Amino acid sequence: MKRLIAIFLFVFSFVSVTSMRGESIKFNGLVQTWFSHGEEGYGDDSGYGFTLRRVRFKPSGAFSDKITWTLQAGWDKQTASLVDVYIDFIISKAFKIRIGKYTVPGTISSSLTSSGKLDFVERAAITQQWGSRNGLSSYRALGIQAYGDLMDGKLYYAFMLSNPRTTSLFNPSIKDNIYTAQDNGIVFWGRVEAFLTKGLRLGAFYTGGKETDTELTKNSYGAHLFYVNNGINFKVEYIAGEAGLEGLETKYNGMYAVLGYKTGKVEPIVRYDFFTPKDGGADSAGVEKYNNITLGLNYYHTKNVKFQANYVLRKESMAAGHDEIKNNLFYVCFQYSY
Fold first, then answer.
1. How many Å separate Cα 97 from the centre of its chain?
2. Residue 64 lies in a domain
């Protein structure tokens, strides 16, 4: 609670000072509540319950026509955090600079599909695994980024340098008598995307780097093809990478494919996704490959109110000597955004 109060006071103070200067401020945010039911859980017991998944408050504004700012405070999974805090320097449409904490320009599912615009209640397994294996905090990191639009908006690029430990705040300082390798290092993030025709986009990303003191490697890459137009929602993305101590890295990969069609306020939608946690072997649970088929229905009551229901058919490929896991899932999500 103390952390939540501190974050609220920080955001409130910043917004208040900006308002007194006569600068216009835009407010966005959302609230998401979940109910979920797991088929088995441990033993013969099933897991189910309610949660307040996300509460976000996002003010943004401008110091001038060339300098903008964004803050986002969150209370996700009952934990308070300063989700975003960054400043954009707009040199031109083709070249902008962003400094602070923000979404990394990696997998498109994290950087372009915000939490308020997800096709399903949860992101695909490979997307979530990619985020955790890169040590990201809500797909965010601290760093500096150059980005922009080229060819009259038909080509987008973003290149970022960040701390290897994405939640670390401090560098060597005058207060230190000696400097260590802790938290040192650089991680590179890059993404390019082409807008080929109306609703059609094709892109790729790459990230690479390691922690100096632990030599913990973080490398990944991927590609995507999206077509969203005239009610059709088609998305495919492949992601692969490796993470771990140098020389002992674990390779992983996965993909997802989405197909939906929106008519009026209703969108039936389906997704297949898989995640291979360890190339050529099984993870600690004895799983060699995770396979999921998600059947979904989205209902857009108004521009601000959305209901989602998902049923996930989960089928793990188990290593020899491991029993099959019964863990299908049912989700319901209510969302209000503004």
1. 21
2. yes
